[in-house]
Every structure is written in C-alpha cells, then in structure tokens.
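Hi R.,

Here's the chain you asked about this morning:
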Amino acid sequence: MYEHILFPTDGSDGAAVALAHARELAETHDATLHVMTVLDTSSPHIGMTAAGTEGASSGMVAEEHDASEPGVVGEEHGIESSLRERAQAIVEAAADEVDTVETVTAVERGPPHRAILDYAADNDLDLVVMGTHGRTGIERYLLGSVAEKVVRTSDVPVLTVRLGADGD
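And here is the predicted structure, written out as tokens:
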C-alpha cells in the first residue's frame, strides 16, 4: 500500500513521537522512509521551529536577523551553512533511529508547508507522517500550523501525531 513515506521533522519532541509511527508503517509495508527538514525562508527565523521543554527552542532557529534584506535569513550573517549543518544532523539522527528500514534524508528550503508538499509531489510519495504540537486558541492563530496547512492542501494522505499532554 505504501512504498514511500515522508517524515518531515523539526527535531522537536512532537516529531520524535511521530517518528515511531512512521517507522512502524515503513516496517509494515516494507517502504522507504524519507526523512526531511526545512530551512524556512519565509520568516524571521530559518527552519521548522518548535518550542521545546521549559521554553527552550528546538529545530532550526536563526539567532540573528536583518529584516531589511529579503531572502534567506542568515545569509547576511554567514550562518546559513551552520543552520544547514544542524538541519542535516536532525535528519541523520532521525534516520539513525529507524535503522530497520531504508531511509533517504533531505534538507529543503522554503516555507515549511510548501517545501513538504513539493517534496512529496516531486518524489511521488504515498503518505506523510508528521507530528503536531497541538496548539490551540491564540497560540495557534499567531504561530500557525505547518501540519494543518499540509493536511488541508496535500494530494497524498497525511497522518498527524499529536504530542500528548504527558509528553508522549
């Protein structure tokens, strides 16, 4: 049923929970698991970012920003290569956790939801499995939801896995 499964990750706890589901589906269907992350070029931060525990941030966050220049945040500060290295480490760590299935890793650039959808289309993927932070109310309105945008606009099925209130 599934030959190629996409697991987009930002390195967050929510993504780690979703990885277990992606691995199980890939094992069950003998599918290739595509593990990707995105350097977000659409915001004052680079990357798919997520709040970690106790206010810490995970994912690919640019620590410097010059809003006067359009384009990839971090280029003007010489930090894009550092962020790309961090992004590669995120996808490699996730791929290492699923050593029971064939994996492909990728680091893409662009608005995260668009990069995920484009990657899925370009690689003829059958399913997207991704974590969601379960934000509600004003936090969801202000921060938006990459998962929600992917669910609403994807041409392939999307399985979202919510990080539970107790952290799992």
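One quick note: Residues 4-162 form a domain with the Rossmann fold fold (CATH 3.40.50.620).

Cheers,
M.
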